[in-house]
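Hey, resending since the last one bounced:
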Amino acid sequence: MISHFMRLCQNPRSRESKHHDPPMKLISNKLTPPLGLALSVILAVLWASVLYAQTQWPFVPPTNPMAQRNSLNLVLNQVNWFQNATRTASANTGGGYGMLVQQFQAVRSQYNGLKSALSPQQLAAGANQLAELDAGLDILQEAFADYQTAVANGQSNSTALANMCQVLNEASRVWAQELKQDCRQLRVGW
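The structure tokens again:
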């Protein structure tokens, strides 16, 4: 690019020796910008783009009360769907376990979405409560490992699944109550 500008700004006498067309020489002399001006414009554009790139802020998820209420409702709805899955999984002999795993992962995902909608003050004030809720989800997840252990130890799939469903249904109910209580204390959605 700079070599292009250098070619445009060459000495007019050296261009005369290369080109024998005098009318073109006069037009090109009028259109050729001085080298210093061209470089100044390029540097100004580059400097402006660097400043613009430095002033951009990272994306911050919304922490307004409506977004928080929506996120909380999504978590609670997902817990309800998970509880429904625990009640119907025993009837679904082939894919009951997989359906429960999928529904549980959806609960965890929605809960993580709720945490991302909280303000920094809410996250700081409720750090212990949120850690307990995370631990509660980890305990729920252990039920899946217990099911696999029970089946590996010779318990029938249907009995192990029914036991796991009962445990998950009750534990998810308790977890949802804790979530509601903690969200009231943290003023989520207010």
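The radius of gyration is 34 Å.

Sorry for the duplicate.
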